[in-house]
Amino acid sequence: MLVLITYDVNTEDASGKKRLRQIAKQCVNYGQRVQCSVFECLLDSAQCKSLQAKLLSIMDTEKDSLRFYYLGNRYESKIEHFGCKPAYAPEGVLMI
Fold it and tell me: How far apart are the C-alpha atoms of 68 and 50, rounded to whole Å?
């Protein structure tokens, strides 16, 4: 399923900046950054729960916000893209 993950981390102090880097690093391991604090991740149920647990252990629930949007397996018709950045095809060919 495609999961859209968004986060807002309070970076007023050094610990917030560290949390921001750690959350971004975890998200990069599971998906593609599509905007500064937005990731599209193609995950199965176990991966989703694992990533969610990792992110929750990093964030400060008093200062930060984390959202998971579950777009499912038929996500292609649920996404419209406009603007300069090319659309991301999570099931497409990945060239390294």
Answer: 13
What are the structure tokens assigned to 21, written together?
């880097």
CB of 57 closer than 8 Å to CB of 65: no
* DSSP conformation class of 54: H
Q: Residue 53 and residue 33: Cα distance in Å, rounded?
A: 19
25-81 tens-digit pLDDT:
999 999 999 999 999 999 999 999 999 999 999 999 999 999 999 987 777 667 776
Residue type, 67: R
DSSP code, position 81: -
- Tell me which DSSP letter residue 79 carries: -
Q: Helix (H, G, I), strand (E, B), or coil: what is residue 77?
A: helix
CA distances from 64 to 10, 13, 38, 87 (A): 6, 13, 14, 28
φ and ψ at residue 81, rounded to 5 degrees: -120, 135
Q: Which residues pair with 30 in a beta bridge?
A: none
